[in-house]
Design a protein that fits this description.
- With 103 residues, this protein is α+β, with helices and mostly antiparallel strands.
- The mean pLDDT is 83.
- The chain is elongated.
- The longest helix is centred in the last third of the chain and has 7 residues, at 96-102.
- Helices cover 12% and strands 28% of the residues.
Amino acid sequence: MTEDTSQPPQEPAAPATAPVDLGLLSNVRVSMTVEVGHTQITLQDLLHLNEGSVVELDRMAGDPLDILVNGTPIAKGEVVVVGEKFGIRFGDIVDPKQRIETL
């Protein structure tokens, strides 16, 4: 009888994460969107909307808004006024590593 000295097969090591060099991509334009909220309505209700109609959203007044880049959430924020335009003040921001992975 021989003793089995072999070891169980090992899983391959995960590839080392190299630092991401975004130098070549730094001038690429992306689409940033700020979402106030969501809702679902029937097509009939949609067709009856007119000037002055109000649609209730799934968010409470004062809740932070979602900030998305190319459809991917990257932060929460709040609306501010900059001169005569609206702006967004960033609050909770997704970790940079997670942002890169999801873009």
